[in-house]
């Protein structure tokens, strides 16, 4: 009896699970290939374009020495950025990036139009920069120190133990040296009673 199945005509047939093994493997291979093929669009790059890039014909309307700040605003629209130290320089910035899956985006194109104004608010010059003119900026090393001291994890966990009074009553003898917050009194403390 064992591994053979008995039929009414007495013929021998293989185990039912083993009989379908080649078909199961091809079916599983088909499912795996479909899942892999479905995951391919996730690896396709995402192209993102941001910013305000003026049209060339509108840029041609800007005439240095004649066009005012209000006219530039009407022709080109609101600038992407204005100079931090004075309002004499407007920037119209456009940037195109490409990102694949979870990797950092790569800048593929960048256009910057710079409109400089004189003291009277009239256009002094219009300049153009692109990705070739860009420079990498290296941040300054170190960190800006902040006042106070950093608490360790253990100090944060047990830091409040014994900090607060269980009773809110105070003695009238003047011997109470704590404030309403439960901290000891220190001279010059703004929270003193």
What tags apply to this protein structure?
single chain, 193 residues, alpha+beta, 5-stranded antiparallel β-sheet, 21% helix, flat
Concise structural overview:
The chain has 5 helices and 5 strands. With 193 residues, it is α+β, with helices and mostly antiparallel strands.
Task: Please give the count of helices.
Answer: 5
Which segments are poorly predicted (pLDDT under 50) over 5 or more consecutive residues?
171-179
Mean pLDDT: 77
Give the proportion of residues in helices: 10-25%
**Terminal Cα span:** 96 Å
Give the SSE map.
Elements: H1 16-19, H2 21-39, E1 46-51, H3 56-59, H4 69-76, E2 81-82, E3 89-99, E4 106-117, E5 123-130, H5 153-158
Antiparallel strand pairs: 1-3, 2-3, 3-4, 4-5
Can you tell me about this structure?
This protein has 193 residues and is an alpha+beta fold. It has a domain of 88 residues. Helices cover 21% and strands 20% of the residues. It has 5 helices and 5 strands. Strands 1, 2, 3, 4 and 5 form a 5-stranded antiparallel β-sheet that branches.
